[in-house]
Amino acid sequence: MKKIAFYDAKPYDKIWFDQLAAGRYDIRYLESKCNPDTAQLARGCEAVCAFVNDDLSKETIDRLYDAGVRVLAMRSAGYSNVDFKAAYGKINVVRVPAYSPYAVAEHAMALLLTLNRKVHKAYNRTRDFNFSLNGLIGTDLHGKTAGIIGTGKIGRVFINICRGFGMRILAFDPYPAKDADFEYVDLNTLLRESDVISLHCPLTDQTHHILDVNAFRQMKKEAFIINTSRGALIDSAALLAALNLKRIGGAGLDVYEEEADFFFEDYSGEIIRDDVLSLLTSRPNVIITSHQAFLTEEALHNIADVTLKNLDAYFAGEDLENEICYHCDSGKVAGGCRKNRKERCFQPPSADRMLTDSARN
Ligand code: NAI
Question: Which of 27-31, 248-252, 347-351 has the lowest mean pLDDT?
Fold first, then answer.
């Protein structure tokens, strides 16, 4: 049975992976995150399964390769933590491009509703038998403008949810959807005119700090920022400054720039040595959840199902529908993307050997 080293394993990961992998894979669950120091733990496994806050830098990739790992199965849609250039030619990388856009979009709306209607404050008050309404005034979302940055799978579900609330939609995306039935505008117009700004684009060199000091300066004073995509889309220090200066209305964050040091773990008994995170957390108009937008029954099932199917395809020598390499991001591939020709991005030496062996048997 093929062995998988499963990093950063949590109890909720095991529910579906245990059920769906039974009899197919031997999973070595590891509590540690994947990084250069823990890469050795994968020795004896051909596959690694990793998540968004694992450190899949060149050093880690090289050590995983030396340990015998030939396929990296990301159990996530985002992959900004993987050094694809380092992996190219050594370790094939697959991911789960979509597992439930509804899970993430619905969480984005949960953050917006909580922030706007101050449900977090009301919850704490009524538990203390404080039934006062002072300071709990919100606004109607109906008739307000939602600015959506990134109109892919999640962005479009969020657009539909906002429409259900009677909101006007403005969108920005350098690759607009051809079948869009909403209005695209340039980024500055979106920043100036939106009452709610929700981020649904990937983290790339172009989108790093897409919301920076200049962006916050252009926004409405009441604007709510929602980020369920990646922390580094927002310059957190600039966000804190904008909140302090009352330049914006508030923020609902499921992700944070430096989240890898904290998210998914319990630090309730310790001093958090990240002043920006501490100050953001203390603000009454900031809601932070720890990268839980994906966390629904349906999404967890789909993540396990697609991850294992990706590995099945790898080990069967088939083409990898959900493979990604650095060429995919650069968009410049001599002769066109190999995936479009139903080929793998590359064949590592061991995969060639594996195929020859299986052909012989
Ligand atoms: P997608 O690939 O379907 O859509 C991304 C969209 O962003 C595309 O339309 C693309 O053209 C657009 N885009 C690319 N560069 C842009 C730019 N410079 N400015 C504006 N838009 C740009 O991705 P999907 O599935 O909608 O996911 C979006 C993001 O959500 C992921 O990249 C990931 O970071 C995040 N995510 C967060 C989760 C969570 O639990 N918090 C779970 C799943 C995804």
Answer: 347-351
Atom of ligand 1 nearest to the CA of 151: 9
Distance of CA 207 from the midpoint of ligand 1 (Å): 10
Q: Contact at 8 Å (CB) between 314 and 94? A: yes
Q: What angle do CA 33, 37, 43 make, to 5 degrees?
A: 85
Nearest alpha carbon, ligand 1 atom 32: 202
Q: Is the dihedral of CA 210, 211, 213, 218 positive or negative?
A: positive
What are the beta bridge partners of residue 172?
149
Query: Does pLDDT of 361 surpass 50?
Result: no
What are the phi and psi torsion angles at 47 (to 5°)? -125, 145
DSSP letter for each residue of 246-267: T-SSEEEES--TTGGGTTTS--
The two three-digit tokens of residue 76, written as one number: 């996530």
Render pLDDT for 82-92 as a digit per residue (tens, 0 to 9): 999 999 999 99
- Predicted confidence (pLDDT) per residue in 139-155, tens digit: 999 999 999 999 999 99
The reply to whether ligand 1 has any atom less than 6 angstroms from the CB of 149 is yes
Residue whose CA is at the smallest distance from ligand 1 atom 37: 229
Place of tokens 């949590």: 10
Distance CA 136, CA 289 (A): 21
Residues contacting residue 238 through CB under 8 Å, at least 6 positions apart: 209, 211, 212, 213, 216
> For ligand 1, is residue 98 a contact (CB within 6 Å)?
yes
Q: Residue 317: helix, strand or coil by DSSP?
A: coil
Dihedral angle computed from the Cα positions of residues 238, 243, 247 and 250, in that order, rounded to the nearest 10 degrees: 110
10 Å CB burial of residue 178 (0-12, 13-18, 19+) is: exposed
272-284 pLDDT, tens digit each: 999 999 999 999 9
Which atom of ligand 1 is nearest to 229's Cα?
A: 35
Active-site annotation, residues:
230, 259, 291
Helix then strand count (H, E) for the chain reads: 13, 12
Q: Quick check: CB of 348 below 6 Å from ligand 1?
A: no
Phi, psi of 94 (to 5 degrees): -120, 160
